[in-house]
From TrEMBL:
<feature type="domain" description="Fe/B12 periplasmic-binding">
    <location>
        <begin position="44"/>
        <end position="293"/>
    </location>
</feature>
<keyword id="KW-0732">Signal</keyword>
<dbReference type="InterPro" id="IPR002491">
    <property type="entry name" value="ABC_transptr_periplasmic_BD"/>
</dbReference>
<dbReference type="InterPro" id="IPR050902">
    <property type="entry name" value="ABC_Transporter_SBP"/>
</dbReference>
<feature type="signal peptide">
    <location>
        <begin position="1"/>
        <end position="23"/>
    </location>
</feature>
<protein>
    <submittedName>
        <fullName>Cobalamin-binding protein</fullName>
    </submittedName>
</protein>
<dbReference type="Pfam" id="PF01497">
    <property type="entry name" value="Peripla_BP_2"/>
</dbReference>
<dbReference type="GO" id="GO:0071281">
    <property type="term" value="P:cellular response to iron ion"/>
</dbReference>
<dbReference type="InterPro" id="IPR054828">
    <property type="entry name" value="Vit_B12_bind_prot"/>
</dbReference>
C-alpha cells in the first residue's frame, strides 16, 4: 500500500500533464477551409485588418493583441497598439518581430502572397472572409476558441444574434425599398448582392438595385444609377461627416431618391466593418428605409 501511495502522485502528475497538453491543442477551420492548429491558446496575436482588431477585442482577447494595421481605432485602446503597416501592405518584418503565435487576416483585403509568406515562416494564420451577418457571430466564436476566451466570445456572439433576430422580426417583412449603396464618388462604386452590406439591406427589407453585378465592389456609371432609379441612395464616405458628393445627385431631379429627398448617410465604420457595430449601422439603415416608405405618395 505504501509503495502504491508512492507511485500514485507521479502517475497523477503525468496523467494531468498529458490531459492538459491534449486539451490545450486547438484546431479551427478558417473561412477558406484551412485548418489552423495551435498547441495552446494564442497569447500574442497580430491583426491584419481594422475589423479584425475590433472583433478580437469583442471576443475578449484584446489584451493578447500585440500589433495591428493602420485604422485599427476601435475600441479606443486599440489606437495604442504598435502599427505594422496597412491591411493592403503589411510590413512582414514588423509582424515577425512581434513573435506572434497567431496572425488573423482578411482574405479580401490582405494580399494572398503575404498570407502565404507568413505561413511559410511557420506562423499560424486564420483567414477571415465574412459575407453575411451570421459570419460576424461565427468569427467571434472562432477567435474565442483560438485565444481561449470562449466564454466572453460566445456571450458576444449570442448578443449579436439576438439583436439581429430582433431587427429581422421588425423590418424584414416590410414593403421592399430599392437601394443604391454608394461606397465612393470618383470612381463611382457600389456593392453587389454578395457583399455584407447587401445582407444589411435585406435585413431591413431593402433591395440592392445592383445585387446582380459580378464584382463584390464594382465600379459603375451614372447612367446605370439613372436606369436603376433607386428609391433610396445611401452613402458612406470616409468618416463621421456626410460626404458632399451625396447631394450631388440632386443634379438629376428625375431620380426617385432625389424627388423624395431619400439621400441618406451612415458612417462607414458602422456599416462597412464586419463587427458587432454593424448592427448599429443596420438600425440606422432600417430607420432610413422606414422613412422612405412613409414618403411614398398616397395610393
Amino acid at each position: 500500500m505504501t509503495a502504491l501511495r508512492r507511485f500514485l502522485p507521479p502517475l497523477f502528475v503525468l496523467l494531468a500533464l498529458g490531459h492538459n497538453a491534449f486539451a490545450a491543442a486547438i484546431d479551427v477551420v478558417d473561412d477558406m477551409g484551412d485548418t489552423v492548429h495551435l498547441d495552446a491558446p494564442a497569447r500574442r496575436i497580430v491583426s491584419l485588418a481594422p475589423h479584425l482588431t475590433e472583433l478580437i477585442y469583442a471576443a475578449g482577447a484584446g489584451e493578447r493583441l500585440v500589433a495591428a494595421v493602420e485604422y485599427s481605432d476601435y475600441p479606443p485602446k486599440a489606437k495604442a497598439l504598435p502599427r505594422i503597416g496597412s491591411y493592403t501592405n503589411a510590413d512582414l518584418e514588423a509582424v515577425v518581430a512581434q513573435h506572434p503565435d497567431l496572425v488573423v487576416s482578411w482574405r479580401s483585403g490582405n494580399p494572398p502572397t503575404q498570407i502565404e509568406r507568413l505561413r511559410a515562416l511557420g506562423i499560424p494564420v486564420y483567414v477571415n472572409e465574412p459575407r453575411d451577418l451570421d459570419a460576424v457571430a461565427h468569427t467571434l466564436r472562432q477567435i474565442g476558441r483560438l485565444a481561449g476566451t470562449g466564454a466572453v466570445a460566445d456571450a458576444a456572439a449570442d448578443a449579436f444574434e439576438a439583436r439581429q433576430a430582433a431587427l429581422r422580426t421588425r423590418y424584414a417583412s416590410q414593403a421592399p425599398v430599392g437601394v443604391f449603396y454608394q461606397i465612393w464618388d470618383q470612381p463611382l462604386m457600389t456593392i453587389n448582392g454578395q457583399h455584407l452590406i447587401s445582407a444589411v439591406i435585406r435585413l431591413c427589407g431593402g433591395r440592392n438595385v445592383f445585387a446582380d453585378l459580378d464584382l463584390l465592389a464594382p465600379k459603375i456609371g451614372v447612367e446605370s444609377v439613372l436606369v436603376a432609379d433607386p428609391e433610396v441612395i445611401v452613402a458612406s464616405g470616409m468618416g463621421e461627416a456626410r460626404p458632399e458628393w451625396l447631394d450631388a445627385w440632386r443634379r438629376w431631379p428625375q431620380l426617385t431618391a432625389v424627388k423624395r429627398d431619400n439621400l441618406f448617410f451612415i458612417p462607414p465604420e458602422l456599416i462597412q466593418r464586419h463587427t458587432p457595430r454593424i448592427l448599429d449601422g443596420a438600425t440606422r439603415l432600417c430607420e432610413q428605409l422606414d422613412t422612405a416608405r412613409r414618403r411614398r405618395p398616397a395610393q
